[in-house]
# Entry
Amino acid sequence: MFNYLFSLFSNDMGIDLGTATVLVYIKGQDIVLREPSVVAMDKDTKEVRAIGVDAKKMLGKTPANIVAVRPLRNGVIADFEATERMIRYFIKKVHNRRTLLHPRVVIGVPSGITEVERRAVRESAEQAGAREVYLIDEPMAAAIGAGIPIQEPEGSMIVDIGGGTTEVAVLSLGGMVVAKSIGIAGDEMDEAVVQYFRRKYNLIIGDNTAEEVKMKIGSVFPIEKEMSMDVKGRDQVTGLPKTVNISSEEIRLALLEPAKAIVEAIKNTLEVTPAELAADLVDRGIIMSGGGSLIRGLPELIAQETELPVNLADDPLTCVARGTGAYLEELDNIKNSKKIKI
# Structure
């Protein structure tokens, strides 16, 4: 009864603590926040200057005394202090000001992180003001958020491509039978674009520019109508500003290596999947989620390489957050259950 009253008056939340973006789900309200995982801090005083959208605008543009950083790398905490401040900021931003109680928080984490890294995430959220912290593996959260019937005695496959990690898992009977996590995802694709401009055009561009190019004309499979765009940067030889026109064919070439690594991770997971579950996937196929799954042609490339049907989730960007929210909604009922592993 006491726990019920606590949950009634506190805005419990599910958090997709992504390398690139943080999404927050509030119990009974849906997703209420979506902001970049970026913190801008003063080097000397350690004072936070900006978090989220405002901080991302500062990437690559800050004066010497301010540094804009991404406190998470490959899905795990790289800067504990910055992560704690970021979580605290988001909790304060979405929490009902009339509420005096600290929230319970469910956080999605990569399936491949260590116990030490899990503890770091949990402690970071507790330091930020969470009353109780529960962790759920991102592939499980993504599958729940995508509406996959994970409790059924049949195999389902989820591929969640975020900013820092790609999560691949085969699920059945409410658990992950096989799971693989690799540190190649959206950020690695951005870096591949950066390196391509450096090699081909001697042009230095920032991460934000690389992401924009990737999203506007990027593809990993031949498309019906090729595109092009002007890209501005700094000439590596002369040091002067420079503009080049880049085609979607060139960006496809740049993205080929990280795309192949993701396909290889999927194949490796399929190779160790039990035969009965693998047979289920022939009909059920692969469900894709995460921002990286929106790269043009990626579902087609995976379908060609695996010979399985591949479909995007209804709202790929929010699957993990919605999954943490669904877990949160049922937390009181499944807290002591073994059906969903945390």
